[in-house]
Amino acid sequence: MDRSTSQLWTKRGLYLFLAAVIMFLHLLPLNTQPDRWPFPDILIALTLAWVLRRPEYVPTLLVAVVMLMADLLLQRPPGLLAALVVLGASYLRSAAPGMRDSGFAGEWSTVAVAITGVFALNRVILAILSVQQAALGPVVIQVVLTIAVYPLIVLLSQNGFGVRRASPAESGTLGARS
């Protein structure tokens, strides 16, 4: 196995490990009192950051499996948020090549639109299906906090885990078959 294939599978395993750690920490009962502020959805921010930085590290099937597992473990309606995150990730995956020259502000605003769209569609679909939901205020705070934590996730991914944007030379060879 060559170095690039080994690195690809290592990063996919790292994403799966980080997703499991995030879900584990989310399920861990650290406090018996209800939270005053909703916690940002770090798993969605991590997924979207990696999709924009290196889409080959987080294929669509892996995103779907991880998000479906999160839906099941966190007792959300199974598959709804997973499907919406897959749609958001697919949108960002298709927009990633054009965003290479836009800078971080353009990337952050595009991710903010995707995160807002995921949460808004989730709320609308749940309302149409008459499913009981949390109040709108905490959900809006969670969206804002998720958007606010995105730069930290990108910084950690880039400096801690080596998930950087592909250079133009690398992006030309990524889809090539030998």
Automatic annotation (TrEMBL):
Which source organism? Ruegeria meonggei
* Name by which UniProt lists this protein: Rod shape-determining protein MreD
Q: Which UniProt keywords apply?
A: Membrane, Transmembrane, Transmembrane helix
Q: Where are the transmembrane segments?
A: 12-30, 80-96, 108-129, 135-156
